[in-house]
Amino acid sequence: MAATRREEPSLSVAAVHLMKGVVYRDTHPVPWHHLMRLQAQVRDYVAVLGLTVVIDEAEGYAFLRSQPGDDEADGQQAIRRLIPRRALSFHVSLLLALLRKKLAEFDASNADTRLVLTRQQIVDQCAVFLPASTSEARLIDQIDTHIGKVVELGFLRRINDAEATYEVRRIIKAFVDAQWLADFDARLAEYAAELEATR
Amino acid sequence: MEFDEVEWLRRNNAAWRLLRADHAALVLSFLGRVFVEENVRSISGVELTARLEDELFALNERLGAGTFPRAAKSYLDDWAQPEVGWLRKYYPPDSDQVHFDATPAVERALSWVQSLQARSFVGTESRLNIVLELLRQMVYGAETDPDARLAELQARREAIDAEIAKVRAGQVEVLDGAAQRDRYQQFVATARGLLADFREVEANFRALDRALREKIATWSGSKGELLDEVVGSRHAIADSDQGRSFHAFYDFLLSPQRQQEFSDLLARVQSLDVIGASDPRMRRIHYDWLDAAERTQATVRLLSEQLRRFLDDQVWLENRRVMDLLRGIETHALALRDQRTDGLVFELDAAAPQVVLPMERPLYRPRAKQPLDSTVDTGEPDVDVSRLFEQVHVDPVPLTDAVRAALRRSSQVSLPEVLANRPLEQGLAELVTYLSLRDPGFDVVFDEDRRDQVRWYDPDGRTRTALLPAVSFLRRVPALDRV
């Protein structure tokens, strides 16, 4: 196929891969290469759809995001957003926040790029925040479900190792950012206050 | 050294802990062979486990089963624990398999143990020469007065001239055998030491990086001050004393002339008769240096790179903000722990647009029905099915009775004691039944640390032996007595 020839970067390859999901430098070398050489064109192209490209060359990933402000844009001009929003339960959100914290701590303490956690480590981290009444086994089941959800979201990756281990994908930094965490924190505070008031 | 200092080291130093460990011989011989002798700097967990398994098997075979009862993987996991610290466990960027490298502690312990082996003779002359040479380098290397430098150079030239004149006159001084062996010994020790040092150099770089990161993470002043304080330049690591010395060494090593000179000299030294059995490792020691130095070099590069990224404005601010926010989130989450949270839903953007193409869906296709014919034509109506039922069946009741009988005499009885009175009749199946007995009158207790041997005769009269964890039956104290 002419489109995948190395010497001729192809806008199609770069754009289609981005439409399908995150492009990683290590796992998608070919589309990554095309994307790097055609950043400006890809940017212009997806802008038509109300999207923008986020590229983190240092971390080696790229993905599409809705252009900011589009949803609340005034009147008929607003473009319908193409990127769906995922609804997350409280515990999955909390797990995301905790994983983000782990990554920040990890970066602050050593220079390895890959944060790998065992299932047990994740369980230990979460267990404190789940109702104490549940039995141990049920608790672990619940956490497993949450972990599964986060794997599905693409922020954890199961590692094919003998033990149950997960890599925290560094792209979590782009989604679970300070802004999102601040909103999360505010909502929790609000909710806690509501509960207090109704009691 | 003060008492407390030594005591602290004895308890906390990984190398000393290694020497004190019960299975130090295993650790030192195994890790020493893989990481020091073979100069491996990174090995996958699977490969290392397989090698240790072989090693354990051979040792258990030789020293008796149970000398090293645990699985290879569990030993490795132990050695890699941060508080043990003999192996560094990490995930390289391009592999999903955990990898290992030895820590400097292993090198240290090993070199100490090696120093215990008696040396045929201890050469001192060459070391004196080295010491003198070092002093000379320091004194004249730091001399800024050109006259003094010139005087030194003149003196050296005169000494060389005198030597040339002597040789011209036919007086050639030759190093005697002892002097040659002395120097060779010195050379081997230094060459090996250098190789060992790389591991420590690398570990020190990592420690430096960690210290910097800690400082950055807990910094409360402005970003500018931080940069002034910690990393005047982006080469914080490469510019440390250690970094400079290491780079000078590396450049030296990389020069093709030097390499050629080194190889030639080495080959000639190895062929000298007086050296006798030369150390085979020395033949390619400079390649080993090169390998090790390259790895260390790569580590330094990576560390500098990551550190710079970590210091990047946005990352720096974001990480600090994240840590602050998380404190609030954790507090709130704890407060909500026992509340209903079904009503709480949060939103997160997906990482890609959702493209639904209706025409991509396959059309309905009726499934072809497969008739199922379950009638079986055996062809041979008279199958002897009795064999199916002639499997071994062990009745646990008599076994339970035997145990109870034994427990009437004492409150605890071991499995071999029970078997002494009532030998196994049905072999392994019966033995397994003993292990799974359930009875309100007694408990079955396994002791994984001890092993019992059980023997019986199979129907053909051969002796069979099973090795199993020590099993005892404990008489249960009636519930009333306990209250």
Question: Could you explain the architecture of this structure?
Answer:
The complex is a heterodimer of chains A (199) and B (483). Chain A contains eight helices and seven strands, in the order αβααβββαβααββαα. Chain A has helices at 11-20, 29-37, 39-47, 90-109, 119-127, 136-153, 172-175, 178-198; strands at residues 23-24, 51-56, 61-66, 85-89, 115-118, 156-160, 164-168. Chain A has two domains: 2-77, Arc Repressor Mutant, subunit A (Orthogonal Bundle), CATH 1.10.10.2250; 90-198, Orthogonal Bundle (Arc Repressor Mutant, subunit A). With 199 residues, chain A is α+β, with helices and mostly antiparallel strands. Chain A has a three-stranded antiparallel beta sheet with strand order 1-3-2. Chain A has a three-stranded antiparallel beta sheet with strand order 5-7-6. Chain B has three domains: 3-116, Arc Repressor Mutant, subunit A (Orthogonal Bundle), CATH 1.10.10; 124-142 and 177-315, no CATH class; 389-475. The longest helix of chain B is centred in the middle third of the chain and has 41 residues, at 177-217. Chain B has helices at 3-12, 14-20, 24-37, 45-63, 72-79, 104-116, 125-141, 146-168, 177-217, 223-230, 241-254, 256-271, 285-311, 313-335, 386-389, 396-409, 415-421, 428-435, 479-482, and strands spanning 43-44, 87-90, 99-102, 345-349, 412-414, 442-457, 463-475. Chain B starts with a helix and ends with a helix. Chain B has 483 residues and is mainly alpha-helical. In chain B, the strands form two sheets. A three-stranded antiparallel beta sheet of chain B has the order 1-3-2. In chain B, strands 5-7-6 form a three-stranded antiparallel beta sheet. The chains are: A alpha+beta (199), B mainly alpha (483). At the A-B interface, helix 1, strand 3, strand 4, helix 4 and helix 8 of A face helix 9, helix 13, helix 14 and strand 4 of B.
